[in-house]
Design goal:
This protein is an alpha+beta fold. It has one domain (6-115). It has 5 helices and 6 strands; from the N terminus they run E-H-H-H-H-H-E-E-E-E-E. Strands 2, 3, 4 and 5 form a 4-stranded antiparallel beta sheet that branches. A hairpin with a 6-residue loop joins strand 3 (74-80) and strand 4. The structure holds zinc ion. Zinc ion (ZN) binds next to loops.
Length: 116
């Protein structure tokens, strides 16, 4: 059986791309938290293939990924701001940036990356 691959979205803040990829991995591995994926990385790598660039991306944003939760029926995601580069927890769609006072950036919420 070949391993699953995912494609992170492009044209979004990097932290959002990392969160999208992480959510896809978490759902596929049935892990509620990113820490569960990290703890079982060797086991999960048998089923899911990540490129070196993807691993680097995930490692760069480990702090943000710690906020993600993937439970059946409820996903806690993050939204990133393309203007100020900050992010926040987002259970549902966030329209304007709340991470930085006065910022008018349009937040982008991470959704699970698609399989490729
Ligand atoms: Zn902002």
């Amino acid at each position: 059986m070949s391993r699953k691959c995912f494609t992170a979205p492009t044209g979004v803040p990097e932290v959002v791309a990392a969160a999208s990829l992480a959510l896809a991995v978490m759902q596929s591995a049935r892990a509620e938290r990113w820490a569960d994926v990290v703890a079982d990385a060797r086991e999960i790598a048998r089923d899911i293939a990540l490129t070196g660039d993807q691993v680097s991306l995930l490692n760069r944003h480990a702090g943000a990924l710690a906020l993600l939760r993937a439970r059946s029926g409820s996903t806690a995601s993050i939204a990133g701001c393309p203007e100020c580069g900050r992010f926040q927890i987002a259970a549902s769609t966030v329209k304007t940036c709340l991470a930085t006072t006065g910022c008018t950036g349009a937040m982008v919420r991470a959704v699970p990356a698609r399989a490729s």
